[in-house]
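User: Just a sanity check before I run the rest of the batch. Below are the structure tokens for the first item. I only need the designed sequence back.
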């Protein structure tokens, strides 16, 4: 396992980071989830990412239980705040001071730790003044409940404004967590250059595009049994839009010779691809089976030759989504409850 600095900070994280977005507390049993976390630890992963909203707080509990007994100082634990949790009352969402202060306490309790290494704004909150949000984050850091601050799916302009306020308040905004993969590159034009300028790293999710880049989904054929697209507890909903793109699925199959030439599986190729970007500190992987962790971790340290990167671009062609304006549509413009 290789490690990279998170932004312009002194914190190093494992370049393959384990995330439990749509598996723990919902799609897999707790003993399987614990086995996946154990596989991650055995493979050298030290960084774990979750959020209070995942499985309506249950994912944090599962991760906390799975990491119990590990040396806390040897781990980097990340979580997030923004989306509705609990009974989803009128203040149970967003980035108000009230919600942030109550949410960090709940997250720490569920995770079984006194602090998180990174506390992230899960989306941009248009209903709360950014000054209020950043002041609350500063107080969370000064209280010792978080070491660093990050965001998820913020635009370049939002990153710049948040970073400026963080500097005024004397705290470190060091990371951005966007979706990023061979076929989803909306951050490349604006978010990545801005982040590089400001000393912010990307921790990218969905590097295998919900499983599409594994090549398991064949054009014109039903989803394989046991795959995410066959899951009725949320997985099928998440991946549905991609599976309807027949041309994309065909072109993904054309990536197989590239993976074979590099002696990689399709999943390893996808994970290694995002790590070629210098602004990416880590690729977030999830797993429903321990063996998936071992496969993805093998992408750590892989260097893809420039000619292969060009070939990948040529194969995927116009199926790649690049419009940077999409990021602005990710954060809800109004409160969710």
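Assistant: Here's the designed sequence for the first item:
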């Amino acid at each position: 396992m290789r490690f990279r600095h998170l932004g312009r900070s002194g914190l190093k994280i494992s370049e393959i980071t384990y995330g439990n977005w749509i598996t723990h507390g919902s799609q897999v049993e707790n003993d399987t989830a614990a086995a996946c976390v154990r596989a991650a630890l055995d493979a050298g992963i030290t960084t774990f990412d979750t959020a209070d909203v995942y499985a309506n707080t249950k994912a944090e509990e599962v991760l906390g239980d799975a990491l119990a007994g590990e040396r806390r100082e040897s781990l980097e634990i990340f979580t997030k705040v923004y989306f509705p949790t609990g009974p989803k009352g009128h203040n149970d969402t967003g980035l108000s001071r009230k919600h942030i202060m109550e949410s960090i306490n709940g997250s720490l309790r569920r995770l079984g730790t006194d602090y998180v290494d990174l506390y992230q704004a899960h989306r941009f909150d248009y209903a709360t003044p950014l000054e209020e949000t950043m002041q609350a984050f500063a107080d969370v850091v000064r209280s010792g409940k978080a070491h660093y601050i990050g965001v998820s799916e913020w635009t370049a302009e939002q990153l710049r404004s948040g970073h400026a306020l963080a500097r005024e308040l004397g705290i470190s905004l060091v990371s951005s967590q966007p979706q990023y993969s061979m076929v989803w590159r909306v951050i490349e034009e604006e978010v990545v250059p801005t982040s590089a300028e400001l000393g912010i790293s990307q921790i990218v999710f969905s590097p295998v595009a919900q499983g599409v880049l594994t090549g398991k989904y064949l054009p014109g054929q039903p989803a394989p049994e046991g795959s995410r697209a066959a899951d009725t507890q949320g997985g099928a909903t998440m991946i549905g839009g991609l599976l309807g793109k027949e041309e994309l699925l065909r072109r993904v199959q054309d990536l197989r010779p590239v993976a074979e030439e590099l002696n990689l599986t399709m999943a390893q190729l996808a994970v290694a691809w995002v790590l070629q970007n210098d602004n990416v500190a880590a690729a977030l992987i999830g797993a429903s089976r321990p063996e998936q962790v071992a496969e993805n971790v093998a992408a750590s340290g892989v260097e893809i030759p420039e000619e292969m990167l060009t070939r990948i671009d040529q194969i995927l062609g116009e199926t790649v989504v690049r419009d940077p304006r999409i990021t602005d549509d990710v954060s809800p413009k109004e409160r969710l409850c």
